[in-house]
Design brief:
Distance between the termini: 44 Å
Helix content: 25-40%
Mean pLDDT: 95
Low-confidence stretches: none
Largest sheet: 5 strands, mixed
Length: about 140
């Protein structure tokens, strides 16, 4: 028995992230990214990056996955797996770290490459002092 609570879901997360990555719209950067979130109840929801000629209007895969998950009624997540064709595992960008932190800093972040590279973090380690809803409560 694995002590890793995400282990039973890794294959499904990886497949969903890879599938999303293959569907990414990245005509400018050519950097295709897929992300798959594991919801608290064990569902897997994916998103991909969608670029735009007006660069700031593009969306990262992690934020696309968050949007899809929230639209489906989910707000509690256990893990996110990010898949890229990069040589080394790629963590989320700063904006995505902040968006993910909105839903909890104990999220397991897994980055995988198509060649088998993998890195893992806990979101709190990637963004140690996030701005969260608790930041402005009195």
């Amino acid at each position: 028995m694995s002590l890793d609570p995400v282990a039973p879901f890794l294959a499904a997360l990886h497949e969903a992230a890879l599938g999303a990555m293959r569907n990414a719209y990245a005509p400018y950067s050519k950097f295709h990214v897929g992300a798959a979130l594991l919801t608290e109840d064990g569902q897997v929801i994916a998103g991909c990056n969608v670029e735009n000629a007006s660069y700031p209007a593009g969306t990262c895969a992690e934020r696309a996955a968050i949007g899809a998950a929230v639209a489906a009624g989910h707000q509690h997540f256990r893990a996110v797996l990010i898949s890229t064709e990069a040589d080394t595992p790629t963590p989320p960008c700063g904006v995505c770290r902040q968006v993910l932190a909105e839903f909890g800093t104990d999220l397991v972040v897994i980055a995988r490459t198509t060649t088998g590279g993998e890195a893992r973090w806990v979101l709190a380690d990637l963004l140690p002092d996030p701005f969260t809803p608790a930041s402005f409560r009195h």
